[in-house]
Each structure stands twice: as structure tokens, then as C-alpha cells.
């Protein structure tokens, strides 16, 4: 189970996020009233998909012994239409290395099976408790 802790003080939007072993700062861009001190919440969401895709593809390629795969680049754009209550993620994957077209097609199939992709494309429930 993933567990994070977030804390905000009096500085508008600057949020410290911690796990048991890591930390980062989230903020909003200056154009939204923040100071752009870290990833925005939307960037954090997009980065979760990008990181999970990279890790899943690397793990799969390693299991298959595809040592020619030297790098995986993933770009994710996230946008939200508040009026239509609709979100869109566009993911672009670049495979670097001497792989066949069949291997590349298989990696594309595997990308859609990463845990964050599965989470984002299936029902999500959020239970909130005030403590």
C-alpha cells in the first residue's frame, strides 16, 4: 500500500509531500498563483503514469532478455476540461535500442497494463475522513 503525507502552511499552494523515506515539494505555477517550487498536482498525476510506464516496460524487457533496449522515454500530457468534467492523458513512448517491430508492438501492449494505467482507467473510490 502506498502512503504519503502532505502538509501546507501559510504559503499559498506550497505543499511538502513525504513518504517514510522520500520527500518532494508540490506547488502551482506562477500563472495560477503559486511560486512554481515543485510539480503541480496535475504534473504529479501525469508523472505517476510516466514513471509506472517506464518501470513496467523496463521490467518486461529485462524478463524477456531484450538487452538491446537501452532507454525508454515517456511523455505524458494531462489536461482537464472542468466544464465537461472530462480529463485527457496523452502518452508518447519512445523506445531506444535495436528492437524488432514485433517487440515494439508488444511493449505498447504492456504499457497499457502498468498498474497506474489500470488504476486510471478503472473505477476509483476515495474515502475521506476528517481527523
Would you summarize the structure shown here?
31% of the residues lie in helices and 28% in strands. With 131 residues, the chain is α+β, with helices and mostly antiparallel strands. A 3-stranded antiparallel β-sheet has the order 1-2-3, with no helix packed on it. The protein has a two-stranded antiparallel ribbon with strand order 4-5.
The CATH topology of the largest domain is given as GMP Synthetase, Chain A, domain 3
Mean pLDDT: 97
Strand order in space, largest sheet: 1-2-3
Order of helices and strands: EEEHEEHH
Cα shape: elongated
Question: Radius of gyration over alpha carbons?
Answer: 18 Å
Question: Which class of the largest domain in CATH terms?
Answer: Alpha Beta
The chain-level structural class is alpha+beta
In CATH, the architecture of the largest domain is 2-Layer Sandwich
Task: Provide the CATH superfamily of the largest domain.
Answer: K homology (KH) domain
Number of strands: 5
Amino acid at each position: 500500500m502506498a502512503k504519503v503525507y502532505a502538509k501546507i502552511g501559510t504559503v499559498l499552494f506550497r505543499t511538502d509531500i513525504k513518504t517514510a523515506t522520500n520527500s518532494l515539494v508540490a506547488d502551482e505555477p506562477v500563472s495560477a498563483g503559486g511560486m512554481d517550487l515543485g510539480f503541480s498536482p496535475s504534473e504529479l498525476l501525469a508523472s505517476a503514469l510516466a514513471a509506472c510506464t517506464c518501470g513496467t516496460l523496463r521490467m518486461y524487457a529485462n524478463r524477456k532478455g531484450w538487452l538491446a533496449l537501452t532507454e525508454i522515454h515517456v511523455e505524458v500530457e494531462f489536461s482537464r476540461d472542468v466544464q465537461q468534467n472530462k480529463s485527457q492523458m496523452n502518452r508518447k513512448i519512445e523506445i531506444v535500442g535495436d528492437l524488432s517491430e514485433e517487440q515494439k508492438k508488444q511493449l505498447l501492449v504492456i504499457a497499457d497494463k502498468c498498474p497506474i494505467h489500470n488504476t486510471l482507467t478503472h473505477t476509483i473510490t476515495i474515502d475521506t475522513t476528517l481527523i
